[in-house]
Amino acid sequence: MIDYVGNNYQSRGLSNLLHIDLKLFLAIIAITILGLLTIYSSSSGDMSLVIKQFTRIAIGIITMVFIAQVHPDNLRLFAPPLYFFTVILLIMVLFFGVGNTADRWLDLYFIRFQPSELMKIFVPLMVASYYSDKPLPPKFTYILLASIVVLAPVLMIMKQPDLGTALLIAMSGAIAILLAGISIKFFVSSLIIIISLVPVLWMNMHAYQKQRVLTFFNPESDPMGSGYHLLQSKIALGSGGFFGKGFLNGTQSKLGFVPEHSTDFIFSAYGEEFGFIGVLLLMFLYLFIALRGLSISVKATDNFGRILTGTLSLTIFLYVLVNVGMVIGFLPVVGAPLPFMSYGGTSMVTLFATIGIIMSIKSHQRILRK
Amino acid sequence: MNKTKARSEHIRKRAKIEEKYSWDRMSDADDERQSHSTRAVIASIVVLTIFTLYLFKLYEVQVSSHEYYATKSDSNRIRIRPIPAQRGNIFDRNGKILAKNITTFDLIVKKEKINNYEEFLSKVKTIIELSDSQVKNLNKQFRNKRIRDITLLEDITMEEYSKISVDKHALPEIELGVRSRREYLYPYSTSHVLGYTGNVSDSDVYSGVIDIQEGMTEVGKLGVERFYQNILAGESGFEKLETDALGEIIRTVETKDSKRGDDVYLTIDIDLQNYAYEQIKNKEGSIIVMNPNNGDIISFISAPGYDLNLFTKSISTENYNKLINDIRKPLINRAINGQYPPGSTLKPFVGLIALEENIINEKKLINCSGAYSLKNHKRPFKCWKKEGHGPSDLSYSLTQSCDVFFYRVAELTGIDTISENLYKYGFGQKTYLDLYNESSGLIPDRDWKYKIKQEPWYPGETLNVGIGQGYFLATPMQLTLATSSLATAGSTFVPHLLLQSIDTKTGDALPYEYKKNKFTTPYPDANKLDIVHHAMWRVTNENGVGTASNMKRVKGLEFAGKTGTAQVYSLDAGKSDKKKLQDHALFISYAPFDKPEIVVTVIIEHGGSGSTAAAPIARNIIDFYFNNNMKVSSND
Question: Is residue B375 domain-shared with residue B230, that is, in the same domain?
Answer without folding.
Answer: no
